[in-house]
Amino acid sequence: MTDADFDSLFPLGEKNDAFASYFIGQSYLAPLADLGMFVANVTFEPGCRNNWHIHAAESGGGQILLSVAGSGWFQAEGEEPVSLEPGSVVQIPAGQKHWHGAKADSWFSHVAISVPGEGTDNVWLEPVEDEYYTTLPTAKEIHA
Known about the structure:
Jelly Rolls, mainly beta, 3-stranded antiparallel beta sheet, single chain, 15 strands
């Protein structure tokens, strides 16, 4: 599949170059709204995922992910990875270490909603290593 074939409810957006150092692979960012909170469609090419990270906040904060297309992964530290399909919703409280991205063989898009809070900041951490990521099932394996 190419970006021209990927069917998502929201636009692909531009290459996410500003945050490229925090991703393995190519991601795209399409801002959707910024009225008191940032809302964007984030698209990941197959195999793309972000680094482990934390949405830090003095109060409030966190992130909500609404899966809209393709097949992806979410994993919180100390928990098993969760397969994401269109319609999956993930609530990430402030302070929870996690990562998310596409499965190795599938494009993936989610709408990311930044929950308002005081003193919010993204703390970017180590990458999700290939040696671990390649052990996760592919979309084809899960849907077989």
